[in-house]
């Protein structure tokens, strides 16, 4: 497998994350909640589940495709570190409700999205 392909996919994922996050966070209403980070993480969970189901469950794609797209593109598209920084920032400014909602929704919907993607990809 080519590390270059993983790097190119990672670069594309990072740019996609930046564009999606900027588009969502740049909408009217300010940034009281980190919707951009939330959206890319939920979408990435769904897509990684789908990709895994298509590779493992159905065998429609080569395992190398899962590595390039999963570790490369989706690894750069999603962002655990920014999510944690957003949680820390909400706690630092005393907005415990926003931190709790972010943690609960991101975790719960992220798991649900991954499960749904896996079920769709697997064909169950």
Description:
81% of the residues lie in helices and 0% in strands. With 124 residues, the protein is mainly α. The radius of gyration is 16 Å and the shape is globular. The model has no long low-confidence stretch (mean pLDDT 92).
Report the average pLDDT across residues. Answer: 92
Number of helices: 5
Class derived from helix and strand content:
mainly alpha
Structural Rg: 16 Å
Shape: globular
- Sheet-strand content, in percent, reads under 5%
Estimate the helix proportion, in percent: over 70%
End-to-end span in angstroms?
A: 30 Å
Order of helices and strands: HHHHH
**Weakly predicted, low-confidence segments:** none
The major beta sheet can be summarized as: none
Task: Compile the SSE list and pairings.
Elements: H1 3-25, H2 35-57, H3 63-77, H4 80-92, H5 96-122
Helix pairs in contact: 1-2, 1-3, 2-3, 2-5, 4-5
